[in-house]
Amino acid sequence: MQNPAYGNSGMRRRRGGGIRWWILLAFAGYAAFSWFGSRQTDPYTGEDAHYGATPAEESELGVQAYQQVLGEARQQGALLPASDPTSQEVATIAQRLVAVAPQVAADLAKAHGQQPPDLSSYQWQVSVLNSDQANAFCLPGGKIAVYTGLIPIAQTRDALAVVMGHEIAHALLRHGSQRMAQQKLVQMGQIAAGMSGMDQQTMAALGAGVQYGVVLPYGRGHETQADEVGLMLAAAACYDPRQAIPLWERMSQLDGGQRPPEFASTHPDPANRIGHLQQLMPQAQQFHDRYCGAGALPADQAL
């Protein structure tokens, strides 16, 4: 005869397992509804995209983050005045890139059979921060910052325009909102896993799988998209897109060229990135010819 205690224990385990699977199935259904319900076609790439906020909400978040960054820079005496020659150089590049953004957006959307995106929520602003960082960013809604440490790496106005075009492209592509949608999905999965009673070892393995199989590739995809759109912005603004190649060669040597392998990074491997940019050069040349006139590209413009 079966031991009653053993039988009850087995029944409890089966019930527990059943409840766990119901929780996971319920999460999967809700996650699928939430994820696919936010799906739209990205007019810049023609690919499916999922957004976690409206353009107006993104812009508001961008303004808040920008004000915090500028406030901290003022306290540290790191915010360059608009009259500074470096600020003026950067502002001129930003103005040229922003001026062509609506036309480039319309051209890319047309190429993918989409309507031009609405850029009315973008309120463009650029600041220069005195820092050794070789970096720049553009927050949702069009708030741009360039660190002075980037200037000696860029070396030319053309290369700096490529970097700034890349950052502006992140904002145009609404990558911040897309990351919000993805983070929401990941957080829902973590909550569901915790509620299901999944053991810590399994949760850790699942988390690593999500990180390396979903989150990091998602980030690399965004970087590639920003490279593509940013290069077209720079070319349409009459900068030399060919300067992207030596720029990223120099960038790859920062920190002694030490970096994690591509699968463990949010950014593409420099060699892969450069190879992709080289493939984009004919298209970039077309954008340059369309907006700036056919003929030889300008000589390097040293900063």
Topology, number of strands: 5
Q: Secondary-structure element order, as H and E?
A: HEEHHEEEHHHHHH
> What is the subunit organization of this protein?
single chain
Helix tally?
9
Biggest sheet layout? 3 strands, mixed
pLDDT averaged residue by residue: 83
Strand ordering within the main sheet: 3-5-4
Proportion of residues in helical segments: 55-70%
Beta percentage is 5-15%
| Structural class by helix and strand composition | mainly alpha
What spatial form do the alpha-carbon principal axes imply? globular
Spans where pLDDT lies below 50 across 5 or more residues: 3-16
Q: Quote the distance from N terminus to C terminus.
A: 88 Å
Structural domain tally = 1
Cα radius of gyration in angstroms: 24 Å
Topology of this protein?
Blueprint (H helix, E strand, L loop, with lengths): L3 H34 L1 E3 L6 E3 L4 H21 L9 H27 L13 E5 L6 E4 L3 E5 L3 H4 L2 H16 L2 H21 L4 H37 L7 H8 L18 H23 L11
Parallel strand pairs: 3-5
Antiparallel strand pairs: 1-2, 4-5
Helix pairs in contact: 1-6, 3-5, 3-7, 5-7, 6-7, 7-9, 8-9
What does this structure look like?
Strand 1 and strand 2 form a beta hairpin. The N terminus is likely disordered. This protein has one domain. The chain contains nine helices and five strands, in the order H-E-E-H-H-E-E-E-H-H-H-H-H-H. The chain is mainly α. It has a three-stranded mixed beta sheet with strand order 3-5-4, with helices on both faces.
